[in-house]
Amino acid sequence: MAEPRVTEADVLRALGTVKDPDLGRDLVTLGMIEDVAVRGDAVSFTVVLTTPACPLKGKIENDCRQAVLAVPGVREATIKMDARVVAGRGVRGKPSLPNVRNIIAVASGKGGVGKTTVAVNLALALSESGAKVGVLDADVTGPNVPIMLGAHGEPRARNNKIEPLVAYGVKVISIAFFVPEGTPVIWRGPMVGGTIQQFFNDVDWGELDYLIVYLPPGTGDASLTLAQLIPLSGVVIVSTPQDVALLDASKSLAMFQKLEAPIIGIVENMSYFVCPHCNERVDIFGHGGAERAAERLDVPFLGRIPLNPAIRIGGDEGVPILRSDPESPEAEAFRLTASQVAARISILTLGPTGKRPTWVPLPMAGR
Ligand SMILES: Nc1ncnc2c1ncn2[C@@H]1O[C@H](COP(=O)(O)OP(=O)(O)OP(=O)(O)O)[C@@H](O)[C@H]1O
Ligand SMILES: [Mg+2]
Questions:
Q1: At a CB cut-off of 8 Å and minimum separation 6, what does 286 contact?
Q2: How far is ligand 1, taken at its centre, from the CA of residue 140, in Å?
Q3: Which of 14, 126, 172, 176 has its CA 20 to 30 A from that of 34?
Q4: Does residue 318 have its Cβ closer than 6 Å to ligand 1?
Q5: CA distance 245 to 243
Q6: What is the rounded CA–CA span in Å between residue 248 and residue 219?
Q7: 155 Cα to the center of ligand 1, angstroms
Q8: Ligand 1: nearest atom to the Cα of 269
Q9: Residues paired with residue 47 on neighbouring β-strands, in sequence order
């Protein structure tokens, strides 16, 4: 008996059974299927994900392949995986930055927990996945994003706008580019707020999928300005596993919640240390504290980053671990965390409210 002739409608019907696990709806309804073509027993189509850093890319591709190969008459499936980042809920329709799709704040309650390190490596990981990324250093009194990104120079003005510098393919702006090295910036609150606003409005960011905003620690002027005036897609809170840091992290979280900024989740930095001599894992700041806190505060846990001298050296030398040792478990931990951040933003934008990203287990260094 001859095989039935396959049509585009058959392909779409089959793909209509494949769900994006995070967004909870099928790919056809979500508008993620494009360029369907049928040639005899061979079908081809493109899956347009909501972020190139999608942690479920492999699963979605496999599910699609299985679904279409189950259609009678289909013997071959060619799938192209693509991505188009959607503008975040908070950002959509706001005129201030028309070409920036998502603004992500990286904050913490306590100083020294690794916000700058996390912000910079998240930016690189998102950029590496194929997204267009910028970093805005909203720390005007102790700016050190440029040091960790190895970005030096003086931004130029063009058409009355400031051109950001570019480091590792990521656009970056910081007050450090405008004051001579070693000069302290001693400003009152309104000047801090004014400068941050200028960094949004007077910098030519161009088209960006993600603009990461590094916030100085605490609940000060920069955080307030940002949460009140800037349409945020969400806030990433960085904490170490120990109680004092977590207490401060929950205060910071509460402030953003009060200001109605969406919470992306909590990242645990300096999670554990793997002794290079005996390979034993040492939980210097305790174990799993941030994960438990995330559960208690009912926000997603985004990942844990080990404590490793290579991360510190990368920061000091302006070559983030993602570039200095891209194959390391530390770099991989940042990549997985970045994909959880991206997934959570897609969920906050398109998915059922309150849903957490589907967890992709994190590898533990040295195990
Ligand atoms: N996972 C890590 N492993 C090793 N060193 C780290 C790690 N995370 C951060 N560090 C180092 O710890 C120090 C503090 O980190 P960082 O500057 O990123 O923290 P911060 O929260 O931004 O601090 P501040 O509040 O002072 O701005 C830096 O020297 C950094 O290189
Ligand atoms: Mg810092």
A1: 241, 242, 243
A2: 17
A3: 126
A4: no
A5: 5
A6: 10
A7: 26
A8: 1
A9: 33, 81
Asked if residue 312 has its Cβ within 6 Å of ligand 1, the reply is yes
Taking the C-alpha atoms of residue 284 and residue 242, their distance in angstroms, rounded to an integer, is 9
Q: Give the contacts of 128 (CB within 8 A, at least 6 positions apart).
A: 322, 335
How many percent of the chain have pLDDT more than 70?
A: 91
What is the Cα–Cα distance from 214 to 193, expressed in whole angstroms? 14
pTM of the predicted model as reported, rounded to 2 decimal places = 0.91
Tell me the angle at which helices 221-229 and 243-258 cross, rounded to the nearest 10 degrees: 40
Reduced to 3 states, what is the DSSP secondary structure of residue 214? Answer: strand
Give the least confident one: 42-56, 286-300, 334-348, 351-365: 351-365
Q: What is the pLDDT of residues 165-192, one digit of tens each?
A: 999 999 999 999 988 776 666 666 667 7
Ligand 1 atom closest to Cα of 306?
1
For 190-205, the pLDDT digits (tens) are 677 788 888 988 999 9
Q: Output the six-digit token pair for 73.
A: 């008459």
Instruction: Give the pLDDT score at 366.
Output: 40
Q: How far is CA 339 from CA 56, 175, 336, 357, in A?
A: 9, 29, 5, 9
Structure tokens at 355: 């849903």
How far, in Å, CA of 124 to CA of 169, rounded? 8
The CA dihedral of 145, 150, 153, 159, to the nearest 10 degrees, is -60
Q: Which residues pair with 315 in a beta bridge?
A: none
Ligand 1 neighbourhood includes 269 CB (under 6 angstroms): yes
Q: Kind of pairing, strands 281-282 and 133-137?
A: unpaired
Average pLDDT taken over every residue of the chain:
88
Query: Is the CB of residue 108 below 6 angstroms from any atom belonging to ligand 1?
Result: yes
